[in-house]
Amino acid sequence: MDKLPLEMAEQSYNKLTSITLNHLESLVGKDFISVDKEQFEKYGRDETEDLVFFPDVVVKPQTVEQISKILKHCNEQKIPVTTRGAGTGLSGGALPIKGGVLLSMEKFNKILSIDTRNLQATVEPGVINYIFQEEVKKLGLFYPPDPASWGSCSLGGNIAHSSGGPKAVKYGTTRDYVLNLEVVLPSGEIIWTGANTLKYSTGYNLTHLFVGSEGTLGVVTKIVFKLIPLPKFDMLMLVPFNSAEKACEAVGEVFKAGITPSAMEFMERDAINWSIKYAGEVNFAIKPEWEALLLVEVDGNNMDVLYSDCEIISNIMQQHECDEILFADTADQKASLWKIRRKVGEAVKSNSVYKEEDTVVMRAELPKLLRGVKDIGKKYGFSSVCYGHAGDGNLHVNIIKGELSDEVWNNALPKGITEIFELCKSLGGTISGEHGIGLVQQKYMSIIFPPHQLQLMRDIKKVFDPNSILNPGKIFG
Ligand code: MLT
Ligand code: ZN
User: Fold this and answer.
1) What is the distance in A from the centroid of ligand 2 to the CA of 410?
2) Rounded to an integer, what distance in angstroms lies between the CA atom of residue 62 and that of residue 107?
3) Ligand 1 in contact with 168 (CB < 6 A)?
């Protein structure tokens, strides 16, 4: 388990007393509170490696008023509160590392309204991303942010990290669809952060401050999302390359040619091989000489335009020495290719002890990032499986423990990661594109930000949460 930064040990909180437990039970009802260790096993984990931290109590509020009273009480008593969505996070953001109250938002699972007049929807944060997508689709509408875990991640969790996904390359991340938020502050006050309008120039934009704040500033209880019309058609192609770097070079050229694909995903050969083994069959064989594949999708309302886009993309890929391009002809083929792509993370996890980094650079610097990651791996003796959102310059680097000794793993890894992140910075990038900082990346924040800038963030946190009860020990310790 990772060691916690020193600053966290210095912050003191009060222990949960039976008075608090009784008070919480009287607020939410006895069926919605648990001190059962088996429950702690579930609520003490997310999808970040094998980390686990037990809370002192799991509470499942059902109303905003209950949350307001819970926060007010915990704030007065200086008891930590960690808000949790569906627990699919990849940076330890939802782990209750200081114990206290684990506030599960699972009962906030309603789509409250879909406004087809204004193309927007109001939802509760516990709604699962895919369920929301499917509901708006029935009305011809589209909510594009589609993390790989869309079948299980919650919209509130997506807000916490401004999650992206394959479609971010054309449509943007969660942030780009949030119009307004209802938030409960640690004081118990309930606010709306902005307005349900497409434009907003009315003081500081608190909505955008809350998106990506990883549950450290307040508890989101309602979300107003912008929606867009659902594109009618899409085309999907899988493009193999004998050189991973050439694949990365081709990515930038597509955008330079004036085409913005609706997805432009990169997978090294091992990533796709492991995922096929883990998640299912495909009707083509992965040739041993392939180093990487690009999964490219275009969408729109005019098939002729899509055919023409695909032709231009194919030409660019061929100029970068791709092997034969495979077009998905049927909905089933498309679904199976997307399934393979979406399952890569889980497949890697099931294969070996690993450490995942969420590097992001400017798109045209992607080949340099990939080369650098491999060189740093050679220097420190570790291999990596890389995949991710190439069109965004967002490369998920999975460093694999495999047969490495614990000593090499524990000593070399932090040095290697530091160098990878320094490389990201030198390429104009940063240390997380969509997984957030949470617990596991905070020790690297100083690579990106000078001390006074980190202090500025801490000061902002203090304004909202002077007793630091909300998700303590996250982002900057
Ligand atoms: C992905 O792109 O597959 C997700 O970010 C999940 C992951 O990296 O495990
Ligand atoms: Zn991703």
Assistant:
1) 25
2) 6
3) no
Q: pTM of this prediction?
A: 0.95
The pLDDT tens digits for 309-353 are: 999 999 999 999 999 999 999 999 999 999 999 999 999 999 889
DSSP structure string for 408-432: HHHHHHHHHHHHHHHHHHHTT-BSB
On whether both 258 and 144 belong to a single domain, the answer is: no
Distance of CA 130 from the midpoint of ligand 2 (Å): 16
The residue whose C-alpha atom lies closest to atom 5 belonging to ligand 1 is 148
Radius of gyration of the chain (CA): 23
Neighbours of 34 (CB within 10 A): 19
CA 292 to chain centre: 23
Ligand 1 pocket member 345 (CB < 6 A): yes
Which amino acid makes up residue 409?
W
Q: How far apart are CA 460 and CA 263, in angstroms?
A: 35
CA distance 124 to 62: 11
Q: Name the residue range of residue 246's domain.
A: 233-345
The per-residue DSSP string of 216-280 comes to SS-EEEEEEEE-EEPPSEEEEEEEEES-HHHHHHHHHHHHHTT---SEEEEEEHHHHHHHHHHH-
Best CA proximity match to 63, nearest among 96, 26, 105: 105
Q: What is the CATH number of the domain that holds 356?
A: 3.30.70.2740
Query: For the residues 162-181, what does the mean pLDDT come to?
Result: 98
Q: Is 456 a member of any domain?
A: no
Whole-number pLDDT of residue 10: 55
Residue 477 lies in a domain: no
* 329 and 400 share one domain: no
pLDDT of residue 8: 42
User: Structurally, how many domains does the chain consist of?
Assistant: 3
Residues 315 and 326 reside in one and the same domain? yes
CB of 388 within 6 A of ligand 1: the answer is yes
CA distance 377 to 419: 10
pLDDT of residue 2: 39
Which of ligand 1's atoms lies nearest the C-alpha of 341? 3
Q: Give the per-residue pLDDT at 320.
A: 98
